[in-house]
Amino acid sequence: MANSLDTAVAHVVDSLDILDTISDPIERYQASRKTATAVDGRLRVVRQGVALELKANGKTWREIGEIMDGVTAQRAEQISKGK
Questions:
Q1: No. of H helices and E strands in the chain?
Q2: Residue 57, SS3 per DSSP
Q3: Tell me, what's the pLDDT at 1?
Q4: In terms of pTM, does the model score above 0.90?
Q5: Distance from C-alpha of 43 to C-alpha of 65, rounded to nearest angstrom
Q6: Are 30 and 43 in contact (CB under 8 A)?
Q7: Counting Cβ atoms within 10 Å, is residue 63 exposed (0-12), middle (13-18) or buried (19+)?
């Protein structure tokens, strides 16, 4: 699992290198902000799906919070709602 995780992270990071090809610094900055917003939104959806899947598999919100970097049970439930 670690190998596939490392590969996925490396792929995302490598794909961001295209931002360096934007010669205008203002456009490069704007592209980086737009990219960050898009990536953050997509990651929120991924985390929401994970929380919902773990809950469907019988985990408590407390257990899910522990899995999700030790957040509280309340925060884990918020994540499941896309917040």
A1: 4, 0
A2: coil
A3: 57
A4: no
A5: 17
A6: no
A7: middle
Task: State yes or no: pLDDT of 15 exceeds 60.
Answer: yes
Instruction: Output phi, psi for 25, to 5 deg.
Output: -65, -30
Task: Quote the tokens at residue 22.
Answer: 């934007």
Residue 13: strand, helix, or coil: helix
- Provide the CA 81 distance to its chain's centre, in angstroms: 15
* Position 32, amino acid: S
Q: What angle do CA 50, 40, 17 make, to 5 degrees?
A: 115
pLDDT given for residue 5 in this prediction: 81
The CA R_g of the chain, rounded to the nearest whole Å, is 16
Closest residue by Cα to residue 47 from 11, 80, 10: 80
Interhelix angle for 25-56 vs 73-80, to 10°?
110
